[in-house]
């Protein structure tokens, strides 16, 4: 099922901009709100429904999008912090989820000079051509962001695509890293709690100089092949990355996560006080030990830590204190367990 996740704040989530002789001047940046209500949209079936939904959402400045999945650690109708990692005084509220709606943040792509009021499609086409043929041949919804100037040699926009299958947020982020330079894509967009603003800026000294900030760009196909993102991401995974050290041993983050294996999934399912579960901390220790024994430094340890955290907060337990769950999922606790398991069990 395709859907958007939204956060609702008490104040409008928009920039305030003053019109000056040679362009824009930011008066007030996006407000730093701490608490939000989480919402899930209705099902989004095609690019036309994407356009309709974002058009309506842009008229509600107190709303913004996020990629994360709302967790049931706190009620949906409660004002909560937008946290992927829990804090001492607040549990995580957004987790990872598979994505079937792709949002691209184009942040200052150099283009041939264009009058954005008369020929905005020319600017968008230049971006699509830069992204490559699958994108240029697929319908998308475009929304010009607050930095876009009316007479421009750079493009600032969000492009929305419907994918033909689901892709993980981590895969999209790795792909975006490979297009950061040539297409000016912003990879920071692909964090579960990162706000994606949709409301237009509020202008002082005149009305918005852009007559229309959004529109549907129709093409030959209505869905984008997700394999174009998976294939580039797989190639990028093989590039050398810095290793992180636990207990003096360099651990490679590049390889698959242990929980993608049958044994890993079996241990993951045992976390919790539910029927068939084995509790929390003891099972986490055994899961990490098994990962070190079977895969050693080939584990993607950082991803494994995130998956353990999500599992703990998803299953939860009314019999367990919040501080206990926060402590066993902290970096200090998990890093110590990984270092110990690597010393005892890792063969490579």
Automatic annotation (TrEMBL):
It comes from the Bacteria. This is Primase-like protein. It comes from Endozoicomonas euniceicola. The lineage of its organism: Bacteria, Pseudomonadati, Pseudomonadota, Gammaproteobacteria, Oceanospirillales.
């Amino acid at each position: 099922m395709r859907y958007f996740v939204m956060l609702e704040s008490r104040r409008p989530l928009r920039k305030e901009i003053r019109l000056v002789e040679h362009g824009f001047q930011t008066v007030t940046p996006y407000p730093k709100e701490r608490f939000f209500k989480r919402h899930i949209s209705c099902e989004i079936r095609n690019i036309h429904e994407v356009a309709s939904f974002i058009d309506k959402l842009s008229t509600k400045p107190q709303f913004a999008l996020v990629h994360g999945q709302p967790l049931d650690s706190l009620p949906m109708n409660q004002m909560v912090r937008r946290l992927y990692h829990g804090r001492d005084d607040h549990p995580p509220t957004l987790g990872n989820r598979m994505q079937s709606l792709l949002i691209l943040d184009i942040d200052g792509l150099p283009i041939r000079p264009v009058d954005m009021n008369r020929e905005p499609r020319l600017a968008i086409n230049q971006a699509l051509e830069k992204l490559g043929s699958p994108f240029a041949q697929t319908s998308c919804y475009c929304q010009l962001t607050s930095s876009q100037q009316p007479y421009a040699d750079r493009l600032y926009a969000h492009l929305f695509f419907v994918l033909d299958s689901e892709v993980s947020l981590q895969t999209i982020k790795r792909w975006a890293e490979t297009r950061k330079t040539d297409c000016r894509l912003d990879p920071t967009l692909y964090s579960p709690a990162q706000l994606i603003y949709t409301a237009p800026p509020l202008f002082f000294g005149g009305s918005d100089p852009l007559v229309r900030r959004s529109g549907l760009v129709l093409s030959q196909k209505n869905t984008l092949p997700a394999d174009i993102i998976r294939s580039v991401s797989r190639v990028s995974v093989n590039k050398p990355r810095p290793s992180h050290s636990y207990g003096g041993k360099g651990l490679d983050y590049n390889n698959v996560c242990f929980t993608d294996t049958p044994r890993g999934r079996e241990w993951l399912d045992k976390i919790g006080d539910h029927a068939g579960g084995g509790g929390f901390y003891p099972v986490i220790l055994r899961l990490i030990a098994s990962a070190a024994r079977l895969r050693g430094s080939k584990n993607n340890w950082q991803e494994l830590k995130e998956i353990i955290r999500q599992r703990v907060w998803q299953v939860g337990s009314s019999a367990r204190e919040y501080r206990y769950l926060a402590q066993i999922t902290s970096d200090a606790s998990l890093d110590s367990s990984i270092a110990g398991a690597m010393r005892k069990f890792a063969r490579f």
